[in-house]
Amino acid sequence: MNARVLDGEIITSRLDDVRAYDGVRSRRVFACILDYIVVGLLTIPFAILVFLLGIITLGLGWMLYSFLVPAVAVLYIWNTLGGREQATLGMRAMGIRLDRLDGAPIDGMTAVVHTVLFWAGNVLLTPLVLLVTLFSDRKRALHDLLLGTVVSRSDR
């Protein structure tokens, strides 16, 4: 274990350093906006494929439009947030990443569950999701508390 001393405190991991959470809330908001844009752009080629499939199947393929955006978003999250970097493209641009408190890497299923809880929380409890970050340790949101994860700065 690499322990270091910072202002008289022993820091055993990157997640114990309070500087790793500076500006995380605002960075999360902007990362979310960027990720919505990326998912929207990624949906365009798949929408064209579904359109062509609908023509071939005499309209039956067009029913796939109802699942298109969530399917693209889940694949995007699985491959980025559940990948080696543990961050979506928006999170990388904002310099943040998702970590588990037990130190294990984020796998694809945890990333998808994290995102689904985020979406469900925003649909049902929008103000509560953001208010929790004001009072929780490490500026964790409600879905972070449920899954034992934390968003921290990747540059610290």
UniProtKB/TrEMBL annotation:
<dbReference type="Pfam" id="PF06271">
    <property type="entry name" value="RDD"/>
</dbReference>
<feature type="transmembrane region" description="Helical">
    <location>
        <begin position="62"/>
        <end position="81"/>
    </location>
</feature>
<feature type="transmembrane region" description="Helical">
    <location>
        <begin position="29"/>
        <end position="56"/>
    </location>
</feature>
<protein>
    <recommendedName>
        <fullName>RDD domain-containing protein</fullName>
    </recommendedName>
</protein>
<dbReference type="InterPro" id="IPR010432">
    <property type="entry name" value="RDD"/>
</dbReference>
<dbReference type="InterPro" id="IPR051791">
    <property type="entry name" value="Pra-immunoreactive"/>
</dbReference>
<keyword id="KW-0812">Transmembrane</keyword>
<keyword id="KW-1003">Cell membrane</keyword>
<feature type="transmembrane region" description="Helical">
    <location>
        <begin position="116"/>
        <end position="136"/>
    </location>
</feature>
<feature type="domain" description="RDD">
    <location>
        <begin position="26"/>
        <end position="147"/>
    </location>
</feature>
<dbReference type="GO" id="GO:0005886">
    <property type="term" value="C:plasma membrane"/>
</dbReference>
<keyword id="KW-0472">Membrane</keyword>
<keyword id="KW-1133">Transmembrane helix</keyword>
